[in-house]
Amino acid sequence: MVTSWEMRQSCYFPCTLCLTNMSRIADCNAVLKALQPIFQEQGMTETVHNWEDHGYLVTYIKKNGSFANLRIHPHGLVLVDLQSYNDDMKGREEVDQLLNKVEERMKELFHGNIKRVKRLPAILRGGVIDRYWPTADGRLVEYDIDEVVYDEDSPFQNIKILHSKQFGNILILSGDVNLAESDLAYTQAIMGSGKEDYTGKEVLILGGGDGGSNIDQMVIDGCKKHMRKTCGDVLDNLKGECYQVLIEDCIPVLKRYAKEGRMFDYVINDLTAVPISTSPEEDSTWEFLRLILDLSMKVLKQDGKYFTQGNCINLTDALTLYEEQLSRLYCPVEFSKETVCVPSYMELWVFYTIWKKQTGI
Amino acid sequence: MVTSWEMRQSCYFPCTLCLTNMSRIADCNAVLKALQPIFQEQGMTETVHNWEDHGYLVTYIKKNGSFANLRIHPHGLVLVDLQSYNDDMKGREEVDQLLNKVEERMKELFHGNIKRVKRLPAILRGGVIDRYWPTADGRLVEYDIDEVVYDEDSPFQNIKILHSKQFGNILILSGDVNLAESDLAYTQAIMGSGKEDYTGKEVLILGGGDGGSNIDQMVIDGCKKHMRKTCGDVLDNLKGECYQVLIEDCIPVLKRYAKEGRMFDYVINDLTAVPISTSPEEDSTWEFLRLILDLSMKVLKQDGKYFTQGNCINLTDALTLYEEQLSRLYCPVEFSKETVCVPSYMELWVFYTIWKKQTGI
């Protein structure tokens, strides 16, 4: 059994230098010549590719498996990318020293006339811990993950619970950050931001990824054990004095309630974010979403409120499409929305309040 | 004048494949052979480096200046990194298609036995807009920057105001995210989180990077124009009915107030975050910080409060050192701290309330 890849990881260090006007020095050759000795001093062997009109790619290879790419673009962009295996502090210091030398040499060559120098933190790949969980709007963000608490495949999805130093345990379903222990703001927002008095009220919660009622039993099992700051002891017993958790498909339940005429003061839909797809006609998720909305309205009292999450504020097209769906329900509704900062999301999130339009007498 | 680099950028696409047990197929050669045709179909020319004990690095070069690195580690980590210039949607689709093929071929080869496949969003470098502003604890985060609003060097620092789609304008001083228009939470926290009644009180604010009183006139000029959601019209006139903005070194001002016996109900220190350095004896920043604290305590009423930011919650060493400084002031003080989610920071931030210890009679 070879599992050693799990103990090691690849470290990629990106460094960018933007020059104000490279044509002044006539060609990329000067950069190549100036930087060559720095890599050669490291005992690296060189392979040069010259595109002529697209500049140079120089690959420097070290005996220990590390390598560097030096990409010189003729319009004044110089990229130095280092990749090594088995990250350790010594390796990082070496990388810093090497990049310091590159920067120094370039400043000498261009008499300080460098528009921008930027080094990005190392990107770590292939280790036990994956720290990169892109936002809903597709941005690269690195989390301070220091432990894999739970990692299982259910028949429906991959379920991860990862520990973040600052956010506590984070539930990640098929790569999407769902909720962290730090995210009380999410729960507050989807419950109406503290403006509601729930005393004696009938509340129907659909979903509840935070260790609430999800159709995937394994999510519940994982959350019950590892997301207790979020779900408390609610999931230990699926029935309490004033609540009951049903682990079922919510559609038949909603249909049954509608048929029985059971009505709620609040319906809280925490099933899924608004689909990112912008073609509602083609995507059955939108139909599912409208079905849920229609059924929810059927079991919502005339003066009741429906709370749900939308999506990240940057996905304006998806949010607009969602709002269009609201005009296509069986009964007329009105809505308001609120933008909330959910700590572990690293992006602002939109929440909706929907209610039945009151018809004048 | 060559300025075309400003209109183009380099796009780096990182893709990771982790295999459960690569030794089963005896060597990395099979991976190399399986993936070769995919790159060759793209008209890419191949350069192979074989480390023997450290696996392969294969560089594939395309005529248009793009290239790919295929790094095969013998313990089962395969990295495919693509780098191209002149990002466009067509380029991205091509990259996706190529990576799909790689993934497919690898799954065939290992009969689906691949532990993890991960593609990260492209890293864009060298363009007009720099979207990467690492957190205080050194994590790589990408912002949704879509415009450079202001970018100037003052005698003290580089001052940038960048527009984020979700956070509004963000003030970035020498690479550190200072405050965005979304960050009311910061201002509220450093003012005591809404628990104070400022009516008729004397308040001394030191610093105020959010377009408040910074010694760097250029920061004020930039903020006055571009951070109005944060600073309102306060900076248009440095003197108002109930406030005065002094653009001076705060040390002599504090000394003068102390000498005059001028006392304040509140001192709000927004000068700088707690230094990240862990060697307070060597770093003059700590001395500066203690000097400010001592002088502030001298002008603070016996029942007054001192508010200040700490740093990100993950920098526990720096925060502990800061708290140790508090026991070294001329008068005994007590403190409490609060952790706040400042939207544009993408990390939790610690704020302190400090007060003079009430001595019993």
TrEMBL record, chains A, B:
Keywords: Polyamine biosynthesis, Transferase. Residues 131-356 form the PABS domain. Pfam families: Spermine_synt_N (PF17284), Spermine_synth (PF01564), SpmSyn_N (PF17950). PROSITE patterns: PABS_2 (PS51006). The keyword Transferase applies. One of its GO terms (biological process) is spermine biosynthetic process. The keyword Manganese does not apply. One of its GO terms (molecular function) is spermine synthase activity. This is Spermine synthase. It comes from Ficedula albicollis. The lineage of its organism: Eukaryota, Metazoa, Chordata, Craniata, Vertebrata.
